[in-house]
Amino acid sequence: MIEVNELTKRYGPKAAVSDLSFTVRPGHVTGFLGPNGAGKSTTLRMMLGLHHPTSGSVTIDGRPFADRPRGMRHVGALLDAHDVHGGRTAQAHLTALAVSNRLPRRRVGEVLEEVGLGDAGGRRIGGFSLGMKQRLGIATALLGDPPVLLFDEPLNGLDPEGVKWVRGLFHRLAAEGRTVFVSSHLMSEMENTADFLVVIGKGRLIAAESLKDFAARGTRQSVSVRTPDAAVLRTVLTDEGAHVEPHTDNSLTVTGLSASRIGDLAFQNMVPVHELTPHTASLEAAFMELTADSVEYAAGDAR
Ligand SMILES: Nc1ncnc2c1ncn2[C@@H]1O[C@H](COP(=O)(O)OP(=O)(O)OP(=O)(O)O)[C@@H](O)[C@H]1O
After folding, report:
1. In this structure, are 115 and 259 located in the same domain?
2. Domain extent for 71
């Protein structure tokens, strides 16, 4: 479990992270979402003891990461896929890390296979595509077989097949009981990847909850209803306190009542219903709404 307690990081007068508190639990994939510049990378670096907080603390399973002698055996991280020596082969890069962290050398072959780079182990990293570098970064995080895994934008540069593979891998790692914490600035990337979300904007916490609860915060749920007696049903639903928007094709868009309540009311008033479709709020819409005030640079800012 990762516990972030009232974490603040200032660079001069600017606060990159402000009074941030949240918990990341094992057994789930938790998405760490926020627009560009929200403070995700700064927070991840503080989790790993690479940046010192101005105030507050982060513990991983009860202790700061810096106090963990087992290092890569306890926490695996991918922070920047480009941060590797291009002249080395993937195999040499991982072997150096295995040796310096006293990990068994056999892990090198295992993790290369695991990330689909089994045939590329002998090639120089300088010739790797961004997607291959991401896979190598994931292999590095897995090298120590750690219970806690942190990934900064791991889906960047992956093709659709690669994205599908990463999602499967993260779900499997979480199902094994590990803590999997994954950052992204795109809700679309997290939608089928994470079970829980920690959302930040301008360094502050916006939400820490399940994906389902997060979606429910956004645009209100609406229901499409189609009926030959649109005028009658509109009156019935409005009397019940719903907001009803009529359309020319005998359909209504209703907010403020559930689909089942609308169906019951139509039945009680003998109004035939030809369609009743609930529309849940899109996650993207919820994310845009909640972070709208936190975007550092929006289109139209340039003058
Ligand atoms: N070393 C630094 N010196 C000064 N300001 C910094 C430094 N590192 C980060 N910042 C600022 O802190 C804020 C948070 O940056 P950070 O990289 O953590 O955001 P992020 O959410 O990871 O963004 P992105 O999705 O663009 O990577 C930004 O405004 C950034 O400009």
Report:
1. no
2. 2-217
**Which residue has its alpha carbon closest to ligand 1 atom 13?**
16
Q: What is the CATH number of the domain that holds 119?
A: 3.40.50.300
Q: Is 259 left (phi over 0), alpha (psi -120 to 50) or beta?
A: alpha
Residues 156 and 172 in one domain: yes
Nearest CA to ligand 1 atom 16: 39
CA–CA gap between residue 148 and residue 142 (Å, rounded): 10
- Please tell me the predicted confidence (pLDDT) of residue 186: 87
- C-beta 41 within 6 A of ligand 1: yes
pLDDT in tens, 188-233: 888 889 999 999 998 999 999 998 888 776 556 789 999 999 999 9
Both 119 and 209 in one domain: the answer is: yes
Quick: pLDDT tens for 235-266.
Answer: 999 999 999 999 988 899 998 898 999 999 99
Say if 24 falls within a structural domain. yes
CA distances from 9 to 17, 44, 117, 181, 207 (A): 5, 12, 37, 20, 19
Q: What is the ipTM of this complex?
A: 0.93
Is the CB of 45 inside a 6 Å radius of any atom of ligand 1? no
Are residues 207 and 128 located together in one domain of the fold?
Answer: yes
Q: How many distinct structural domains can be found in the chain?
A: 2
- 197: helix, coil or strand? strand
